[in-house]
Here is the input.
Amino acid sequence: MKKRVHREGCSFSPREIIRKEYEIVETLSRDYNIKSLCKVMNVSRSGYYKWLDRKGTINNYKKNRIALTEKIKNIHKHHSTYGYRSIAQNIRNKTGWVFSDNLCHKVCKSLNIRSKARKTYIPRGEESITYPNIVNGNFNPSRPFEVVVSDTTIIYCRGKSYDWTYYIDVYNNEIISYDIQLSKHGNGVNNHFNACKKFLEEKIKRGYKDLETTFHTDQGSIYSSKAFNKLHENYTIKRSMSRAGTPTDNPVIESLNGWIKNELYKDFKIYLAEDINIEINAYINYFNTKRLAYSLKYKTPVQYRTEQGFK
Here is the structure.
């Protein structure tokens, strides 16, 4: 059989040309003998029959691409805050499939899927006179309870607002303590004190009472109060505060705060919760034991901590 030479300027590849020839044979086969048509078209008769058998079927690459697309759509439906890297790693962990983040990005782009996240900018302010910023951007602890950060945010649920104060261990971004109270006069103090007490209890329980902890917060009135600071004076706590109105001084809690609230509203539908305490507990369990973190090499906070040999 004569060898085909691909001509310069031809818009079709050799494979596409052969497919076109097979299509011509198929069209003319209603009126002419297939053997004769293949001879005239200079194509293999066995190759033509193989092409007929394959026609209309989906090859493995397309099958895998379709399966991956469905997985991505399903994860985005339940976790619209996930970026393509988190989506890819979740699929790899659950299925064992081997594919690149780049492929996941391409599929997400074709589906017009983007992570739903908010970004804000607030200018820098003045440093606290009570407690200077001793962390000064060094958020790279070598063990649990070396640097702990805290913040309070508002959660809306069924027409009511709640103050949620929580503590995060910077070592592995684990939520180690929290308290949530209905937003009303007097509850803010209880909210902060309860969360702090739980944090101190956890520090003792995990065996870190005598090891120094740098506790970094913003300059909120309760965090700055004498009563609040007296609460932890016997627990080897060193205080540190961000400059006024400068969330970039506490990037761990501020960045996670945005992700956490997005997930609570978009993925967990916290605004529909019958019992907000139950939902917050469920979310914290998910955050600490199921949510894969890019900064922890796609491990959960608890998994990362235990694999490093810490309690």
User: Anything to note?
Assistant: DSSP finds twelve helices and five strands in the chain.
